[in-house]
Amino acid sequence: MTQPPHDEPTASSPEELREQVEQTRTELGETVEALAAKTDVKAHAQEKAAEGKEQAAAKAGELKEQAVVKTAELKEQAVVKTAELKEQAVVKTVELKEQAVVKAGELKAKAADLAHQAQNRLPDPVKDKATQATEQARAKAAQAGQLWQDEAPEPVRQKTAQGAQLACDNRKVLLAAAGVAVLVWLTCRRKG
Fold first, then answer.
1. Beta carbons within 8 Å of 167's beta carbon, 6+ residues apart
2. In whole angstroms, what separates CA 190 from the centre of its chain?
3. Residue 26: is its pLDDT beyond 90?
4. What are the residue ranges spanned by the domains of the chain?
5. For residue 130, how many other CB atoms are within 10 A of its CB?
6. Mind listing the pLDDT tens digit for each residue in 144-168?
7. What phi, psi does 161 have (nearest 5°)?
8. What is the distance between the alpha carbons of residues 116 and 176, in angstroms, rounded to a whole number?
9. Which residues contact 183 (CB under 8 A, 6 or more apart)?
10. Cβ-based neighbour number of residue 182 at 10 Å
11. Which end of the chain is more exposed for a tag (fewer CB within 10 A), N or C?
12. How confident is the model over 97-120, as pLDDT tens digits?
């Protein structure tokens, strides 16, 4: 027979021997189970897969939370930037409108000044001729207008009335152009 290990006491009675055997069997069973668990590749793979799945789920949750936070931040930034751009556009529009009003006033003043200068440079006989021509033109226009009212169809009269209203609204410009035309005509007539 084999000799018992030196660190274990030998059994003095059969009952102690049975207890030692039972204890050894239990320890041996636990050792075998531990060795079997270590060599069970499928179980290890399933444990690793479960761990990986848990880690992936945790990481996905973190990334989802980060994405929600980042989306909220970007949305907030977009709202702020849009408001800034809108305000800048309003300010720029107001500035451009003010500039346009100022420029229109300057151009109107310049046109009036040029018309006044042109009238001042015209000699008195030319002014008198222009006045006579204007009166004759008015008389002829009144006659033509009466004839027009009597003979022209209604839609044509309406369109003509609109054109006449436009001419009345721009009377100063038309008079300045007429004065310049008369001046040019007189200048050409004197040279010829």
1. 174
2. 64
3. yes
4. 123-192
5. 19
6. 777 757 777 788 778 777 877 877 7
7. -65, -40
8. 8
9. 118, 121, 122, 126
10. 18
11. N
12. 888 788 878 878 887 787 777 777
**13 alpha carbon, distance to own chain's centre:** 97
Contacts 24+ apart (CB under 8 A), 167-172: 172/111, 172/112, 172/115
Chain position carrying tokens 């290990």: 5
Query: What Cα–Cα distance (Å) separates residue 180 from each residue in 175, 184, 185, 189?
Result: 9, 6, 8, 14
What whole-number distance in Å separates Cα of residue 4 and Cα of residue 33?
24
For 160, counting Cβ atoms within 10 Å of its Cβ (0-12 exposed, 13-18 middle, 19+ buried), the class is middle
C-alpha to C-alpha distance for 28 and 40, rounded to whole angstroms: 18
Place 24 in a pLDDT band, splitting at 50, 70 and 90. Answer: very high
Residues 6+ apart with CB under 8 A from 68: none
Find where tokens 């970007």 sit: 74
pTM assigned to the model: 0.34
* Structure-token pair, residue 38: 């270590």
Region for residue 122 given its phi and psi (left: phi exceeds 0; alpha: psi -120 to 50; beta: otherwise): beta
In the chain, pLDDT over 90 holds for what percent of residues?
A: 16
